[in-house]
Amino acid sequence: MHKAHSRRPASSRILSWHGLAGLALALAPLSVSAMPCTNMTLVLAIDGSGSISDQEFFLQLAATARAITNPQVIAAMADIGGVAVTAVIWADTAFATIHLDWALIGDPASAAGFAATLASMPRVVTGNTDMGNGINEALDRIDDPNNCASYNVIDVSGDGRETMYPHRRSVSLLAARTRAEDLGVIINGLAISSLDTQLADYYRTHVISGPQSFEIETTTFAGFEEAMQRKLLQEVGGYTTTLSAEMILPAPVFGMGG
Prior knowledge:
Helix content is 38%, strand content 16%. By secondary structure, it is α/β, with parallel strands linked by helices. β6 (186-192), α7 and β7 (215-218) form a beta-alpha-beta unit. The protein is globular, with a radius of gyration of 17 Å. The chain starts with 16 loop residues before the first helix and ends in a 16-residue tail after the last helix. Mean pLDDT is 83; it is low at 1-32.
């Protein structure tokens, strides 16, 4: 079993708190391409809070990118006509949540393009673990008039429980889960329990929501990639087990762009 990474001071690559907040606000208006019309949407809600070191943050991004490009994951997404995927990187509400464009993933090229963008994202958030705010931002991505999916999933990963700065305006985890239930959105969790041996129980009790929702645990960041791969396969598999074949849209043709 790998040891958890130590909590060392932020490296010289990380800006000061005020500089970091300013850069986050500058990056916030990232363009959001139109949501693809497909059977399933998936929002990767990635924890960037202060309990996660620089090394662990970039490991999360790289490991998620590798999981997305795993041949089994790509094949599972292709089998249901492709999955509309985006990501939000969240932390303290003092920082704007960073969003990636939507991508329709259903072949190696589309998976590689999204993975490369995700893996190259800078770290511009830190601070408290405002998980409710992160989930609410993910719900904003899903609650789109262009969304024609019948199966919508938020994939939350992190290494801590919700913490919020007193008196700061934020959306609580409870409020975000309630909104997800109202919208019919499933929340699944990947708990990184290197600092909190009871974190998986917390995710099961307070984070995941919706029919057939589930939680996967890794006790170290070293196990994150394997856990994320299993999670993606289970999430895509959940579509086929909960919805009838008649609801599946015609599969798009990949690799035919002009």
